Structure formats: C-alpha cells, structure tokens
Amino acid sequence: MKSAWCERLVLVAALGVFAAGCTKNPKKPAFEFMPHMADSPAVKGQERDSDGNGMGVPPEGTVPQGYQPYAHRGDPDAAKGLRNPLRSTKPVLARGKLMFETYCMVCHGRKGEGDGSIVPKFPRPPTLHSEKVRDWSDGQIFHVISDGQNLMPKYASQIAPEDRWAIVHYVRTLQRSLNPTAEDLKAAGGR
Predict the structure, then answer these.
(1) Which residues lie below 8 Å from residue 66, measured CB to CB, with a gap of 6+?
(2) What sections of 71-160 are H helices per DSSP?
(3) Radius of gyration of the chain (CA)
(4) pTM across the whole model
(5) Residue 149 pairs with which residues in a beta bridge?
(6) DSSP 8-class letter at 114
(7) Is residue 54 exposed (0-12), middle (13-18) or buried (19+ Cβ within 10 Å)?
(8) How would you class 191 by CB atoms within 10 Å of its CB: exposed for 0-12, middle for 13-18, buried for 19 or more?
(9) Using one digit for the tens of pLDDT, what is the confidence trace for 37-50?
(10) Using the 8-state DSSP alphabet, how is residue 127 labeled?
C-alpha cells in the first residue's frame, strides 16, 4: 500500500517538473490568469502612467468633501476682526482641551508654558501666558493655529474650524489659570 502511494507521489512530482519545463520562460508561465494583476505597472501616488492608469492630480480648485479652506491665509491683519462663534461652555472647553492635548501640547506643554516634550529637539515655543499672547484677540490666536507662525505649522487642514475655536477658549482658560483677573478671583471666592 505504501508503494502505490509513493508511486503516485513520484508521478505527480514528475508531471510538475515536466509542466514547468514546457514553458518558454520558467519565470513567466505560458498562460497567465489575470495578467493585469501579475504584471501591474508601478504608478506613484498622484501620477498617471502612459496608459492613463493612476490617480492623477486633482483639478485646480478642488476642495475635499467636508473641508473648509481658511479664508485669511497669509493675512494676519484680517484675522484681528474674527470673533469666536462658540460660547465658553463645559463641552466646548472639554473639546478644546482634547484638541490642545492632541495637537498643541507636544510643543507648548500641558499648561501652555512652552515646555512640551519636543522642546529638547526643537527651539522652545513662546509661552501662551506672555503679555503679548494674552493681548491677542481670539481671532489672532485662531489665525496662528490655522496659518502657522515661525516654526509652528499650519493646522487648518488637520483641525476643523470649530475645534480651533474650542482650542482658543481652552488657551484663554489656561491663561486665566496663571493670570486670573479680579473677576475670576471674586467668582472663586477669593479676596
């Protein structure tokens, strides 16, 4: 019984070797099932090959679905007139804190003092508690988040406008935590 099984195994192996030897090129079989999958052309992202295959560059002026381009790009003076459309509520501050900790904390630190984890490798960003930044309007802070400044990149494409405004509210809360106003102290039961 074992000899019949061994004979079949040898026969199958011999047929496999014979079939492989019958092709013109042992690296390329004589018959290709789905040849476009076996020999697909290499096309880099955002390019097309000679046959027109590939994604290609989007037409000029195309905007991704759900994306709102920042209208004041490159114009910091226009941003001074922007007003925060969100009210400072607990949900807005919670969202602002989440977004701040996701995008801003790595450079600006947990309390906005410019002591983030990336600071040893890169120059220290300015503290958000400086008089200069405290005197900025909400629109100016929104503009810097959206359009970047110095080494800070633009976040308009990564952070939705509502979330950028929520970050502005959270930054104001951080500023008031280290520099409370007389009204803040009175509301907290201070002197």
Answers:
(1) none
(2) 76-79, 90-99, 105-108, 131-135, 138-147
(3) 31
(4) 0.64
(5) 152
(6) S
(7) middle
(8) exposed
(9) 666 666 666 677 67
(10) P
The closest alpha carbon to 97, from 108, 83, 84, belongs to: 108
Burial class (CB in 10 A: 0-12, 13-18, 19+), 134: middle
Query: What DSSP designation does 103 have?
Result: I
Helix, strand or coil, per DSSP, at residue 87: coil
In the chain, what is the straight-line distance between the N-terminal and C-terminal CA atoms, in Å?
Answer: 101
Token code pair at residue 134: 């405290």
In the chain, the amino acid numbered 115 is D
Over residues 13-71, the pLDDT tens digits come to 777 766 665 555 656 666 667 766 666 666 666 677 677 777 777 778 787 777 777 77
Reduce the DSSP state of residue 98 to 3 states and report it: helix
